[in-house]
Amino acid sequence: MIPSPNSSSPAGSRLNSLSGSRLNSLGITFPFMVAPMVGISHVAFRELVRSYLPRHLQALLFTEMLSTRRLPSERLESTNELRVACGETHYVPQILGNEERFIAPSLEKLGTRTPWGYDINMGCPASHVLKHNWGVRLMGDRDYAAAVVAITKKHSRLPVSVKLRGTGAGENEKQFLFDFTAALEDSGADWLTIHARTAAQKHEGAANWALVGEVRRLRRIPVVANGDVQTSADAIRVLSHFGADGVMIGRAATVRPWILWQIASDLGLAGGQDRNAEDEPPRTPEEEGREYFRACIRFIDLLETYFGDTEYSLTKFRFFAAMGSRWFAFGHAFWKVSMNGKSLDHLRQLILDYAAKSEHCMIGRI
Asked: pLDDT at position 70, please?
């Protein structure tokens, strides 16, 4: 349960934003989540993020993009992208697809692993996704996109969300987004996530969080903001100032896998008795830098648990390090260290040696 502090206090005002989130209608009382990210959002990364989350809180964590063309013929127990942790429930598979003959058997297979819901990708601008009329290309035809939502809802008894891209600031572009999201709502989408950057921006530049608030005011279903959320303060501001129903954090979670813990602490929802780790999350650049090295070792342990001491595990760690290195003044040096690991044990020792001689202070925002 969310506590009820004095509503006139800063913490009380922020908590009022939580109680006003329409995600509550779906059973989500902590409306902060970690985005689907290609090459990152596998089971080991999701477990790393959960290891920092206060135990009494549940946060939605998304899988990597999963192709509905491939899913029907893949084995759940041996396909790395489909692995889930024992007892894992608050995870959301993100699907790529547009045809009922692939979507239906894909959801049937995924449903045997107790996901919380399903998410349809309508935001990815990658060329290999676009060639199948998936991802952001679905935003080119409102009725076609709405039909994909209707098909998914037809075969799902779980909540179905859509992750899509924002548009430019022009009135015609905004009106297109308003009409597009109305069609998704009418076709049965339970909630929407808007990556508040255009397809041309990809992952660069400032996100238009105000646009998310405008869409939210027009829709009856929850609308979540995504894009350029790098700190706890960012996440809370998007919720309390811009009026989103929830906040989805992407690349920043690769360098701050403890960011949900920071948010919970800032909202007065985290207590030291609720975790086995420290009483307070890391805050200063030095504290975050030290915690990052600890997170790297924990991540290697999780990779070994789920994928073994394999080239796959090494590749996943290198990608993780490449993403996070941007938040450090000399991050390229650490990334080079990660590239030199010949095995997971070797990689552990390289990181420990590097940590012993470097403060590796973290930058707040990039």
From this structure: 93
